[in-house]
Structure formats: structure tokens, C-alpha cells
Amino acid sequence: MNTITQHLNSRRDFLALTTATVVGVALTGCNRGERPDRITLAVSTQTNPFFVQLINGAETEAEAQDIELNVQDASDDAARQADQIATAITQDVDVVIVNPTDSDAVSVSVEALNEAGIPAIAVDRDATSGELASFVASDNVAGGTQAARTLAEALGKKGEVIVIQGVPGSSASRDRGKGFTDGIKEFPDITIAAQQTANFDRAEGLDVATNLMQAHPEAVGIFCENDEMALGAVEALGARAGKEVFVVGFDGTVEGVQAVADGSMLATIAQQPEELGKQAVLEAIKLIRGDQAAPEVSVDVVTVTEENVGDYQ
Amino acid sequence: MPDQRTPLLTLKSVSKSFGPVKVIDDVTVDVRAGEVEVLLGENGAGKSTLIKMMSGIYQPDTGRILVDGQPVHLPDVKAAEAHGIATIHQELNLVPQLSVAENITLGRTPQRFGVVDKPRMNAVAREALERIGLDVPLAKPVGELGVARQQLVEIAKALSQDARLLILDEPTAALTGREIDALFEVVDDLKRRGVGMVFISHHLDEIPRIGDSISVLRDGQFVAQVPANTSQDNLIALMVGRDIDDQFPRKRPEEQGEPLLEVQGLSSGEAFEDVNFSVHAGEVLGIAGLVGAGRTEVLRAIFGVDPYDSGSVTLQGKALPPHDVGRSIAEGLGLVPEDRKSQGLVLDASVGDNAGLATLRSTSKFGLVDRSGQRSRAQVVTDQLAVRMAGLDQPIRDLSGGNQQKVVFARWVMADAKVLLLDEPTRGVDVGAKVEIYELINEITSLGGAVVMVSSELPEVLGMSDRVLVMSNGRVAGVLDADDATEDSVMALAVSEVTSAVTASEPSTKSAGTPS
Amino acid sequence: MTATATSNTKPADRPNRPSGAARLGQWAMNNGALVGLILLCLALFIATPDFLKLDNLVNIGIQASVVAIMAFGMTFVIVTAGIDLSVGAVAALGAMVSAYSFSTLGLPGILTLFIGLLIGALAGAISGLSIAYGKLPAFIATLAMMSVARGLTLVISDGTPIPTSGSVSLLGSSIGAFPVPIIAMVIAGLLCWFVLSRTVLGRSMYAIGGNEEAARLSGLPVKRILVTVYALAGLFAGLAGMVLAGRLSSAGPQAGVGYELDAIAAVVIGGASLSGGSGRATGTLVGAILLAVIRNGLNLLNVSSFWQQVVIGLVIALAVGFDVLRRKTAR
């Protein structure tokens, strides 16, 4: 999962698009005599490739199973997501899959779904309250620990490392950071020299990595809580990247994997966003058929290194 | 009721300096209950500093303030208000969007549990309005009232806070004759009730009507206290510190020159219709009329600020395109606008930048400012015009009104304007500086230029114009020769179309006022 | 016209000239950012000797460059009493169109550089047209442009970063020991200074910002100038966007989000008044560098991410407080 900096403008970006989709769906819904099975997928944002891939996975699976999948984009705006779920309730869809913009804010919507008798599935991010039929997510904490181990091995289990954090307070940043810190404790000769945020942004990652390398020139490893920042850090290191200083990212984006392949990044912890989308749809179909859904579906995260990078390109 | 002998308020030997500049130097003023004390002086004489001391905005460096004979300290406006001293500023302290009642009770709105107590608010407001005999709907937004009534609302507000000393800072500046009469009635009534007042006005003719005595200030010093019936000439001499032999030193040309500016059949919507006139080299054409007669609009249309519907403007035989200020300036036209601060000057900029504004483009090469040229020309022209300043780099904000106005003139001298359109050229300018501006007008015409001057001050129009064009309700009501024009004949023309528009609605009345 | 040396002049005109102390105070107020920058640098040097290393100073220059270039364009706008909220999004759009025309359309690299600048200027000109001729408030017109530009960036990129051409990437790299972003910043700054202080256009901006009506009545083509001003702001934003993309060798759909606020902050910290009529290129440069120094210093000192936002917020509040105070003392 991959949170994006919250910002002012993206909230309005897809307003027109979203409105058009809602109206369009409502119209086609009215025209049908026999109701097909319908799923609404409410995602936090489409401005990040990760969620685009998640949607692709869900759409591919829905198409294969001949299910109508309606995708809504909240542009990282919790209020808009609440509106979109309310619309789904009015449309009386069969299942709502939600990728929350915010785990707390989505709870009200999940409770509303419970009340309306529509099963709710959360993907990538949890809901703090309300009853979920299923929660499909990658294991971010485990991913952080995997990153720590990979980095430690490459460093010969000693030296100083730097952590570049995501948006302060976001669950992704919390979980990945926790996993990494826990993992690094297994190696007493490795110390975390500095932890600073770059808000999951590549340009900020470049600046923050530059500054931290200035303050800690002896650092030999950098863990970034997403690939965007890791790519920024690689820019900052220049020729030293992958030779003197090892960078580990998170997400397994196309560019991240490419950087692993060309050796500038040591590893990226790949989530499988398409798999997340696919699993969520599969759970939804179970519910439509009247079966029980699995309460928790853990989608593996994979450490992509030089050795297995070919499989992910 | 305080003893009539003890002044309500006394400023005793007060002085005030800002940095090295002593703006008030050992001034003593008394204000008595039931009397109007007039403060008279040119701009910068220290009147506003003095009333700011009375109202607690400034504190004197030395000297004392006495209320009812007792020394007091007024650290802020609240303290002054607690002593019953209220100021009605030129810029009114009202919230235009709020109702009359809300404005009167603003800051002490009656409330119950945080909810506005409307009946009590209205009662307070009604009582306040009754005290000055003002009849306006309590619920009306103040912004929808005229300036005069807004002012009265502000006075009512002050009185409802038990003010016994009112400071009226140029209350008549924005009022018409009839509104001034109404205000003075209120002032007279307040005098009878024992309210003391401080009155500031630039209109000398108003002073004997309501004043009791006059304190004259000059350059921060107390000059004299004289009775209110002192002659205007004497008052001017006291203010300026010397005799002004001729208030209007117009030198009329011997013979009429070539026509420079010709305006034919100019019409624009509701604003004005079929305006015709021409101005000749060496001539001053005065334009008189009531406020709203369309005089400013005609000037703006000629200059190209606003578009017009039909008609033509010809300058030195060349037709000027409509709505193109740049071309008008290039052909030799200049406009000194009505409101110096909001239309004429860039207040934050320097004297030099302001003077060079109209020539910024015409003197540039390849888009670059001709800095040294602009500067040297500005220096020459401001010297010619005797602009008193510390230098071209001084912010124009710091200059007196008269000197600011001279800089606006300087701009057009630099631009080599042949015809100047002046809109209320001496508004807010001291008596002394007024005469300098009149002499400037003489200079322009003696060098073969021409001037069109809109003014609401009839003595000025009559004293400075060679011909007087009178506008009424958007039309030219008539053109008078200077020798034939009197205040009465001008006023008769000024109201001619106004009355005919009310009494007759036939289109035939249109031609009644057009000049022959 | 000959001298009007009149006999009846007032003996002494007394302009309200400020005293020496007041002038010094005024100077400190007008150069508050520079004073603040120097103090901050001293404090950081004491706290961490790494700060004054040449490497680090060069880094700060590079890190200030994008916001500084954007802020130079913003200075024009703010001098005319306007505001441009779209510069961050326009920067992203310019860079994205440039990268798209290289990666997808296959145009030559040097051409894509100009395309990015052109797109920026075009977007700015559209804002300017709707402000000058459409009478939209600048806040609204540029807010709309911000949304449109960001939306178009997402549409073109389909949500994923696109690699930039070599020419654009050069903007983010170094020529020998000279980092190109700093060179670009210096050039943009000189251009801004030159336009503001030497050209008719620049002087007209001050006049319009100080008093639009007076400028119009003095024959300045106010509407044309306003369009030019916003087009310039867009052009500078386009350049900033390409420096940003150049540093990363890729144009991102989320690049430059929130940068408009940094740019406005830099201009205001640098001594411009949001009410128009004042503002200097040097001040803006100081403002942008101050912001970069704060971020750099907080990184060097490893200050918690949570506190960084507090500190930056306080600096902006201080800067606007200065603006208010300055206007108070000016009246």
C-alpha cells in the first residue's frame, strides 16, 4: 500500500470524471431489467501507479467472472469517499470493496454499509471500526522486516543506516518503519543514524537524502518507505548508489524494479497490487454466491533483488 | 451640568514630536460645553494631531489634558470615550452591511445568553436617533444610506454612548448644501443641550454659521483665538501667515487663440448626452454643475478612460480614437483626476516615479526605462513647479496635499501635454497651495496650452475660467462668458435640466439647454 | 514652461520624514528576511559544523532553486497586487508535456525544453487573460488554472512518471563543478531583477500594484501588462518544473504539489507586500534560500518530522506578521 501526500488540488481533479461515472452508472442501472451482480470499488486515489495496478487487477478478475465493477476515485479525500459509498448504498450494490483514504474516517461508511446489509471488504488499508466481511492487505510490517534483513546482509551486518519516512503519521509509514526498526534490532552492529520524512515524494527524497548524507557521511545504507523516495535517494547518491551506499525501497513500482535491475537500488519490497485487487474481487464473489469470505487475506510481499528481478520486470 | 466657566476639555501647553519633527508646539485650546470650537489651519498645521490627542490616539510629549478642570491621562481611545469624548472621523467607522440599529449598538450589542436582544437593541437605537431627530429605518443596512445620513448615524452612535464632547473632523467635506444645513441644525440642537464640539472644516464660509470661536494653528503653533465672525481674508492671513492679495490670480488672454480641443455630440448612455464644446489655445474653460451632472464622466470619456456611444473628440485637428488613454496622452492630452489618492498617485512610490508615470513608455528604448533622462526631467519640472520635497526619492505619501497635486501636474508637464483636463484640481489643497496651482494654470495657458477645469467650488470656477460651461443632468445647459457669469446665473443653469426632467418628460426639452 | 517661483510660498513645508531610528527600524523590517537568514545560519553553524561546509551550501542552493525560480515569477504577480496559485501545477504540466513530447512523440530534446517553457507561459497567459479581460479575481482564476493544469498533467501521464529528455535532465545536473539548477536560479533571478528595476514593464507593475487606476490614467496598458505578468509567472513556473524534473530525470504527476505556497511564502518573506506595489528580486531570493536552509537544517539536526511542519508554519506566520507590521509602520 502506498499513501500519497495529501494535498490541496487533487481533491478537485477527478470531480468531473467521478460525477460523470456516477451519473452514467445510475442510468445504466435503471435501464436493466434483470440486475447483474454489481460491485463498487472505492479507491483512495488513482494518481499513484500502485492503485492503478490494484484497479487493473480487480477489473481483470471482474471481467473474467462477468461481474459489473464500478470504480470510484476519492482523490485522497475522505469526505468524497464517504459520499461515494453513500451513493453505492443508494444503488444497492451487492458488495462494496473499499480502499480507505483513511482508516478512521472510513469507519462511518463501513457502519453505514453494515446497516444497509451490504458486505464491506477493505483492501490495502483497514477500517478501525465497523464490521468487515474481509480485509485484503499486504503485510507491511513483515515487509519492513524483510527490508531490514536484506539491507543488513548487504552491509555485512554492520554500519550506519538512514531511514527516509513517508507522510508522518500515515499507517504505511508507521507499519513499514516499525517492521524495519524491529528487523534491524537483530543486528546489534547496525545503528539507525537518522530518521527524516520526505512525504513519499521523489523530489523531497532527493533533498532529504542529500542533507542526511551531508550530516552522516559514514552512512552505508538507506531504507526508504517507498520507491519514489528511494529513486530520489538514488539521484542524491549519484554514482555511489549501489556501490558504496545501498538503497532499499518499498512497493516494487516499475521504476523501482528497473533500478534494482540496473543495480542502483539494492532491493525493493514488492507488493502485488494486482493481486490485492484480484483477491478482493474473489472474496466479493464468494459473498455474492452466499459463501463465507476469509476474514483476513494476506497477500505476500516479495523482496525483489538482483537475483529474482527478472520475474518482476 | 458642568459650570459654564470651566471648560469641558482643555489642552494645556501640549507639544508633540515625531522624531526630530515637532508637529505640535506649545498649543493651548479650550472646549466649552454648549460651544463649537473651530480648529483652523492649513494641512500639516497640526489639527489632526491635536484631535488625536483629544481622542486618546496620541499622547502629548509635554503639557496636560484637563477634563472638567481635572488633569487626566488618555492612554487610548477607550479612556477618552470613558470621559465622554467621541470623534466623528472623515472616514466613517460604520459597517456598511450591518443595519442602522446594529451599527449604533456595535461593540455593546444588547444580548441575552449570547443571542442578540433585538427589542432592546432597537430601543437603544431609536432613542439615539430621536435625540438628533433623524428618521431612518432601523433595519436598513447603513451602506444603503447617503453619506450625510451615515454621518448622522455615527453622531447618534456617539451620543448614545453618552458623549458630551464631539470632535467633528471635516464633517461637511462630502455633503451637499442641503445636507450641510441639516447637519448644522443637529449641531445647533446639540449646542443647546450642552454638548461641546470641536469642528474642523476647510470651508471658511461655514465657520460663522456654527462656530463660537476659532483657534488658528500654523506649522504646529498656536497663532490666535478669534471670534467666529472674523472676516475670511483675516482668517486666511492668519492661517497662511501673510496676506493673499488675490485668491484667483487669473490672467485672461488678450485674444482667442486657435481651437485646440473640440468635442462634438459626445453621448454615453445615461451619463451624458450630446455634449459639444471647444477650447482654444490660452483659454481656461470651467465646467460647473451639480454633483452627478456628468462632468467627471465627460472628462473621462474625452481622455479615453471610458468608452462613449457617439460623438467625436478632436485634438489640434486630429481625431482621437475613443477609449484609448495611451493615444490621448501621445497626442497631448492630460488628466488630473478628481481623487488624487485613489486615481492620481501611486502612494507607495517615490515623487520621481509618480512624476514620470505618463512618460515611462514614451521615453523608453527597447523596453528599458530611460532612468537618467526620466530623473533629470522630473528634477527640472518639479523644480519649476516648486514642489517642496526632500528629493525625488521621497515617498509621495509624505508630501502635503498641495505638493502631491503639483506632482500630478508635473507628470503632464513632463509629458508635454497641450490640453489639461482638471477634475476638482484644488480639492483638499491648502489656501496657499491653491494659489500656486492657479498660477500654474496661468503658466500653461500663457504658453499656448488650454485647460478644461471641472470644479464644484463656484468661486473658483468664476475666478479662474475664461468661459463657464454649465452641465445639468448630463447635458450642456449653457455656456457663459466669464464677465457675465455670476453664482446665480450658473446655479440657475445647473438646475435647469434637473427641474425640466421632473416637470416635463417630452423629448423636445432636450434642445432647451444646448448652447447656441 | 518656465519657473513658477512664486512669492507667496509657504515658508516651510514639513513633510513627515521618519527619524533616523525609525529609518533603521524600517530597514531592518524591509530586510528582516536577510537578518533572519544570517542569524539562522549562525545558529545552525554552532549547532552542527556540517552546515557551513561548501558541499552543504551548494546543496542548499540546489534545493532552493526550484522554489526560487517559481518565486521570481510570483514576485511579478505579487508586485501587481495579484496572486498565482497555479504555479506548482503549471510547473508539473510544463515538465510533463515536455517529457511526453520527448518520450512518446519522439521530439528532439532541445525542442522539448522550449515546449515546457511555452506551455508554462501559455497557461499563465490564460490565467492573465481571464483576470485582465474576464475580470475574474486572481485568486479564483489561478485556483481554476491550478486544478486544470494538475488534471491535464494526470491525464497526459496517466498517473505515472515519464522520463525526460537529456536537455531537460541537463537542467538538473552539473556542468563541471557548477550545478545547473543554481545557474538557472541565478539567471532567473537576474532576469527578475532586470525586468523589475530596469524595464518599462517592471516599473509599470509597481505602478499597477500601487494604484491600478492611477496607472491606467497615466496611459499604461494595464490589461496587456497583467496578461504579460501572469504569462511571465507561468514561464518561470515552466522553467522551475523542468529543473525539478531534470533533477529526477523524470516528470512526475505529483511534482510540485504545494510549491505555490512555498513560492508565495518566499516572496512575502523577502519583503513584498501582498497588497501590491512592493517586492524585490533579491528579497525573494533570500526568502527562498531561507526556506531551504530551514529544511536543510532540520534534516541535519534530525528534528522529528512532526516538528518540521510546526517550524515551517511558524516561519511563514512570522513572515506574514512582518508584512502586516510593515504596512502598519508605513502608514
From TrEMBL, chain A:
What would you give as a GO molecular function for this chain, any one? carbohydrate binding
Q: Can you give the residue ranges of the Periplasmic binding protein domain?
A: 39-291
| Cellular localisation | Cell envelope
Report the PROSITE patterns cross-referenced here: TAT
Record's GO cellular component terms: cell envelope
In terms of SUPFAM superfamilies, this protein maps to: Periplasmic binding protein-like I (SSF53822)
| Keywords of the record | Signal
PANTHER family found in the cross-reference section:
D-ALLOSE-BINDING PERIPLASMIC PROTEIN-RELATED (PTHR46847:SF1)
Family, per the entry?
Belongs to the bacterial solute-binding protein 2 family.
Q: What is this protein called?
A: D-ribose ABC transporter substrate-binding protein
The species this protein was found in: Kocuria soli
UniProtKB/TrEMBL annotation, chain B:
SMART domains in the record? AAA
Q: Where are the transmembrane segments?
A: none
On the tree of life, the source organism's domain of life is Bacteria
For this chain, one GO molecular function annotation is:
ATP binding
- State the InterPro entries in the record: AAA+_ATPase, ABC_carbohydrate_import_ATPase, ABC_transporter-like_ATP-bd, ABC_transporter-like_CS, P-loop_NTPase
Read off the Gene3D superfamilies from this record: P-loop containing nucleotide triphosphate hydrolases
The protein's name is: Sugar ABC transporter ATP-binding protein
From TrEMBL, chain C:
Q: Name one GO molecular function term.
A: transmembrane transporter activity
Which keywords, in A-to-Z order, does the entry hold? Cell inner membrane, Cell membrane, Membrane, Transmembrane, Transmembrane helix, Transport
The domain of life is Bacteria
Q: Which residues form a coiled coil?
A: none
Q: Which CDD domains would you find in this protein's record? A: TM_PBP1_transp_AraH_like
Q: Which compartments is it annotated to reside in?
A: Cell membrane
Q: Report the membrane topology from the UniProt record.
A: Multi-pass membrane protein
Pfam families with a match to the protein in the record: BPD_transp_2
What is the name of the protein in this document? ABC transporter permease
Identify the species of origin. Answer: Kocuria soli
